[in-house]
Structures are given as structure tokens and as C-alpha cells.
Specification:
By secondary structure, the chain is of the alpha/beta class. The strands form two sheets. An eight-stranded parallel β-sheet has the order 3-4-5-6-7-8-9-10. The chain has twelve helices and ten strands. It has one domain (20-308): NADP-dependent oxidoreductase domain (TIM Barrel). The longest helix is centred in the middle third of the chain and has 15 residues, at 117-131. The radius of gyration is 19 Å and the shape is globular. Bound molecules: NADP nicotinamide-adenine-dinucleotide phosphate. The site of NADP nicotinamide-adenine-dinucleotide phosphate has 25 residues, from helix 10.
């Protein structure tokens, strides 16, 4: 486990009692959670990317999240965009788990960010109502919408004063987006930045800058969306450790000190993915995994960033306002 993570000294880390990472506002963030993207529902603007994989929607989000809670996940990673928060709320209600044992994170989508403060406030109320709670542990700006994200961030600060949000964070922020927030003089800097991090997209420079500035990194696509399990290095390390490739990717993530939010709609995989606290990767294994990011992967990342900051806004498909010189690696 990373030096900065902690767990109750008297107990082995488990899903219901995982290690935590301290956030700049004094909160403790569980290092493992359950990702709910494409759980029970595929958003319209994401459907083209998953054509032919409709098995994702065979089970409802309520069923999947009930399984995740039964398996022991207590941190649920949600979003307006995922279109399933009402179902997630039903699963929470059915579980009977007290609110203070859960850690709930959600994100406001680009369309709402573009609409401005009134829409953002209304969306947060909807998310709270859908999830069946009167506060969210973390609320994030999903993408740094050009010309709009700073105002949206300030709106979250106001909503936090009303007690609806415990911690504020961002997602998909380049270092330069974060600097924009800083220069705008926000009253508190983000607790977290949620970005893709895995050995196949390990942007060391960006990660270092955020960590040095006190921002905890939530890794998304920690499992590389299930598309890299056949990589020979990963298979070799997994076989030597008698673990699965998914468990190696999960262990790499928590051992680096990133928050890990694997997603699966299958209960056995939810169990498998969570078993990352009973072994360690050696320095050599970590180095080998650290070296798997190719220049092409960085290029793809930059393309996605440019496309997605305006996605589902009136500027969709254009580069209007998009930062063309971000820290890429
Ligand atoms: N902020 C953002 O913009 C953003 C973007 C993407 C994701 N996220 C968040 O991060 C979470 C995780 O990312 P992700 O869902 O994109 O990708 P991921 O967790 O890296 O991978 C999910 C994929 O891997 C498969 N999988 C999971 N465990 C497996 C296992 N043990 N063996 C084989 N296949 C396995 C899943 O299939 P099955 O479901 O069929 O098992 C699914 O297709 C999301 O759910 C979401 O909460 C945030």
C-alpha cells in the first residue's frame, strides 16, 4: 500500500474497511470503490463505442449495484451522465446499509455545466433525490468545459456551503485546466481529479504535478476497460503471482496511491477485482508495468481530451475554446 494510505491498524483491509487516503479538506477517501458507468444503461452519446456489446444492459443497474454492495463495496462512483442514479439509489435503499457507511461520489455533466449555475443546482438536487440522500461525499465537474468550468466550480462551492456537498473535485482536468481554476481564485482547490490511469496510460508528469499540489487522483479505466488483459507482461506477472490480470492492474493502482474504481456487471468479477489487498507487487514488477505506456496511447488520450471537453454541449464537434497545449504525459 502507498505510504500515504491508511487503514484501521487493528484489521486487515477489506472492502467494507478499506485503506483510505486523506483529502485536503480533512475527509478520508476509501481507496476502492465500484464504478457505475455502463451499468444497466448506456448513455446515447456513448452507444456508438459499444455497438455489439449489449450484454452490458442485460441486468439492471439496481441488480448490479445490489450485488456490489453485497460483495462489500461501500464507495459508489456515479454520475449524471451514466443515467442510472435512480437505480443506484434503489439498490442503496434495498441494501439497508446506513448512509454513514457509504461514500458516494457523483459528477455533473457537460450539458448541465454549459447551462450554468441554476441547472447545476437543480441537477445536484436530482442526484441527491435519485440516490436517496441529502448530501454527496464528493461532487465533481465531469469535464473542464471551455469557458464554463470555472463558473461551474464556483457554483459547487456555493452548494457546498448549503451542506449538500462534502468535498469538491474535478475530472478529466489537464494540469492547465487546474491552473485556470487556481488563477480564478477559487476559495478551495479540488480534493480529487478523476482521470484515466493504468499502466497503459500512465502520465507520470501530470500525475506528479497533481500529487505535489495535494490533489488525490481517482483512477478510472483502472482495468483499461477490460481490453489489455492479454498483454504478455501483465499475463506473466499475473501467472507468477497466481493472480488474474485484473487483480494485477488493481494492485498496481492502489500500490501507487491512486483511488481504484473497477466496474463489472458480473458478481464474480466484482469479487475478483476487489482482491488486491492480500499481495504486493515487487519494485521490479511495478517498473515493468510502469513502462507499458506507448506514445500512441498518449496521442489517443490527447485526441479524446480535445473531443470530450465540448462533448454534448452546443460546441460539440468543434475545437472552440479547447486548450491545444496541455501537459500530455
Ligand atoms: N470521469 C470519467 O470521464 C470516467 C470515464 C470512464 C470511467 N469512469 C469511471 O470509472 C469506472 C471504471 O472505468 P470503466 O468502467 O470505464 O472501465 P474498467 O473498470 O477499466 O473496465 C470495465 C470493463 O472491464 C470488464 N471487466 C471488469 N472486471 C473484469 C474482470 N475481472 N475480468 C474480465 N473483464 C472484466 C467489464 O466487463 P463486465 O462489466 O462485463 O464484467 C467492462 O467491460 C467507471 O465505471 C466510472 O465510474 C469515469
Amino acid at each position: 500500500m502507498s505510504a500515504s494510505a491508511s487503514s484501521s491498524p487493528s484489521s486487515t483491509p477489506t472492502l467494507t474497511n478499506p485503506p483510505t487516503l486523506p483529502l485536503r479538506n480533512g475527509m478520508q477517501h476509501p481507496v476502492i470503490g465500484f464504478g457505475t458507468y455502463k451499468v444497466g444503461f448506456i448513455p446515447a452519446s456513448a452507444s456508438a463505442a459499444v455497438a455489439g456489446t449489449q450484454d452490458h444492459v442485460e441486468r439492471t443497474a439496481q441488480e448490479c449495484v445490489q450485488d456490489a454492495l453485497q460483495v462489500g463495496y461501500r464507495f459508489l462512483e456515479c454520475a449524471e451522465f451514466y443515467g442510472n442514479e435512480e437505480q443506484v439509489g434503489k439498490a442503496i435503499a434495498a441494501s439497508g446499509i446506513p448512509r454513514n457507511e457509504l461514500f458516494l461520489c457523483s459528477k455533473v455533466w457537460t450539458t448541465t455545466i454549459e447551462q450554468g449555475p441554476v441547472a447545476i443546482s437543480a441537477q445536484l438536487d436530482k442526484t441527491l433525490s435519485d440516490l436517496g440522500t441529502d448530501y454527496i461525499d464528493l461532487y465533481l465537474i465531469h469535464w473542464p468545459v471551455p469557458g464554463k468550468h470555472v463558473e461551474a466550480y464556483k457554483t459547487l462551492e456555493t452548494l457546498q456551503e448549503q451542506g449538500k456537498i462534502k468535498g469538491i473535485g474535478v475530472s478529466n482536468y489537464a494540469w492547465e485546466d487546474y491552473l485556470e481554476l487556481k488563477e480564478a481564485g477559487v476559495s478551495q482547490l479540488p480534493c480529487v481529479n478523476q482521470i484515466e490511469i493504468n499502466p497503459f496510460l500512465y502520465r507520470k508528469n501530470t500525475i506528479q504535478k497533481f500529487q505535489d499540489d495535494g490533489v488525490v487522483l481517482q483512477s478510472y479505466r483502472s482495468l483499461r476497460d477490460g481490453k489489455a488483459f492479454d498483454h504478455p507482461t501483465l499475463k506473466e506477472i499475473a501467472s507468477a503471482k497466481n493472480k488474474t490480470p485484473a487483480q494485477i492492474l488493481g494492485r498496481w493502482c492502489v500500490q501507487k496511491g491512486f483511488v481504484y474504481v473497477p466496474k463489472s456487471v458480473k458478481k464474480e468479477r466484482m469479487e475478483e477485482n476487489a482482491q488486491v489487498f492480500d499481495f504486493e507487487l515487487s519494485g521490479d514488477d511495478m517498473d515493468r508495468l510502469d513502462s507499458l505506456t506507448s506514445p500512441e496511447a498518449i496521442e489517443t488520450f490527447v485526441g479524446l481530451y480535445r473531443k470530450c471537453v465540448n462533448r454534448d454541449t452546443s460546441k460539440d464537434g468543434t475545437l472552440e475554446g479547447v486548450k491545444m497545449n496541455i501537459t500530455e504525459d
